[in-house]
Amino acid sequence: AKAACLAAQQPLPDGLSQGFLRILGGLPIVLAFVLWNTRAEGLFAQIRQPYAGLKARGWMLMNGLSGPGIGVACYQWALSNSSSAIVLSIVALSPLFALLFQWFVEGNRPSPRVWIGGAVAIGGVILLRNA
After folding, report:
1. What are phi and psi of 13, to 5 degrees?
2. Helix (H) and strand (E) counts for the chain?
């Protein structure tokens, strides 16, 4: 896409615009999936509520802004300014950080298989970076 914009002498869209377009594309698919899976019991019948009240709203806002909003915008910006090998090496580590955050926030300690998989993932990133 970057090469096509440069060849057509058009300005590159910024990361925020690209992230917003991805959200618009994925939102109808997710909503259709949720509505289809909850058609018998109702939309909110199966939702577990681990947090109540104001704390739940804070987590929802942070989740909605951090991943699809800020995260994708930064990802697209990084791809337009850096090598995709470097960007994707960093992005590949995000599930490992998510596990550590889950351990810190919710107290769910990852199993030994997770640590082994994380070591394989980090080793793969190191091998890709040094190749």
Report:
1. -70, 145
2. 7, 0
- Residue 99 CA to residue 113 CA, distance in Å, equals 12
- Please tell me the pTM assigned to this model: 0.48
Which amino acid does the sequence have at 33?
Answer: F
pLDDT digits (tens, 9 = 90+) for 41-96: 766 666 666 666 667 677 777 777 777 778 888 888 888 888 887 888 788 778 88
Residue 19, classified by CB atoms within 10 Å of its CB into exposed (0-12), middle (13-18) or buried (19+), is buried
Buried residues in 25-38 as b, exposed as e (16+ CB within 10 A):
eeeeeeeeeeeeee
Tell me the Cα Rg of the chain.
19
Query: Can you tell me the distance from the alpha carbon of 67 to that of 101, in angstroms, rounded to the nearest whole number?
Result: 14
Closest CA to 111 of 99, 97, 125: 99
**d(C-alpha 77, C-alpha 81), whole Å:** 6
